[in-house]
Amino acid sequence: MHAILKQALDYSAILLTLKYVLNHEAVFQAIADPTRRRIVERLTRGPASVSELAKPLGISLAAVVQHLQLLESSGLVRTEKVGRVRSCQLDPAGLRTAEEWLHRQRTTWERRLDRLGDELADEKGKP
Amino acid sequence: MHAILKQALDYSAILLTLKYVLNHEAVFQAIADPTRRRIVERLTRGPASVSELAKPLGISLAAVVQHLQLLESSGLVRTEKVGRVRSCQLDPAGLRTAEEWLHRQRTTWERRLDRLGDELADEKGKP
């Protein structure tokens, strides 16, 4: 029983890691496209229907639906059918994932530069 | 003379805006690729030569050079030829550009949700 439980836990840990990596990948793919970034920018001002999203972009409803599928599978956007209208809203979790990756890279590098600066200053102080 | 100066200033403002938009675009394109993200992750630990970057990735030097060109034009990486070796290092400015865009979208949306929450609470408090 104990071994089975351990195996199940290991398995779910692998699944979670995989989900994180895939989500990570999907978010960067999603925001690499300028039309999808404009959809995200529009949704920061509040939920919108598919046709409300299509209008200012000057693209077809079918094209918006395709972009939305990618945004939804990446975790950046949630959509919900209310009656006959599909309402779309932002899911900040996806944005946070990408933001955290960028932040981690930048701060790791900046901390390294700071350490180098300190070491150089120490060297200078030596007799 | 005054009109010419004004025109020159307008022109440089347009160029600056264009440069910002293009850079923005290029950074998101650059980090959409998993190999380029691995190069960025490697460079947070310190500068590296092209062959040092190629080794753990298991790809050719030519492929790394192509990725580096994209990373360099997006402002994420700077490269410099020292003797016969090309040294690559991270430029945090590019990372910051992408991070700021994501942060702006997320906080705009979260502030909107907070406002909605306050409005709902006010409504509840009314007689």
Report what the structure shows:
The structure is a homodimer of 127-residue chains. The first copy, chain A, has 127 residues and is mainly α. In chain A, 75% of the residues lie in helices and 11% in strands. Chain A is built from five helices and three strands; from the N terminus they run ααβααββα. Chain A has helices at 2-31, 34-43, 50-57, 61-73, 92-125, and strands spanning 48-49, 77-82, 85-90. Chain A has a three-stranded antiparallel β-sheet with strand order 1-3-2. In chain A, a hairpin with a 2-residue loop joins strand 2 and strand 3 (85-90). In chain A, helix 1 (2-31) crosses helix 5 (92-125) and helix 3 packs across helix 4. The longest helix of chain A is centred in the last third of the chain and has 34 residues, at 92-125. The termini of chain A are far apart. The model of chain A has no long low-confidence stretch (mean pLDDT 86). Chains A and B meet through helix 1, helix 2 and helix 5 of A and helix 1, helix 2 and helix 5 of B.
Brief rundown of the structure:
Two copies of one chain form a homodimer. The first copy, chain A, is mainly alpha-helical and about 130 residues long.
